[in-house]
């Protein structure tokens, strides 16, 4: 697609008000909730059924921050019980949470690419000229 990208459209049932962050979310997850909710509310692209996905995204994003803080505080490499060294175990958590947060961010329309996706127009229909 060339030129200006289409804007995301409010969806039927899109919430104009979103609840506060769930109390069970860790501090970092609540911070992410407060960061992304205003844009989601303004665009009205989230329905009540999408709230668990938003919670999961915020949990994953918070986990990324906590894992990175652990690595920053304890170092990239740890010493094993046998005296060897290896990568900090928090890297596994970091990579898994990054993967999940990226996937969920895309689903929620929080990435530039996902915000620019639009439903195909009738002119994009390859079968449009067939009388089906």
Automatic annotation (TrEMBL):
Residues 1-10 have a biased composition (Basic and acidic residues). InterPro entries: Phage_term_ssu_P27. It comes from the Bacteria. It holds the Pfam family Terminase_4. Residues 122-132 have a biased composition (Acidic residues). Residues 1-23, 108-132 are annotated as: Disordered. This is P27 family predicted phage terminase small subunit. It comes from Nitrospirillum amazonense.
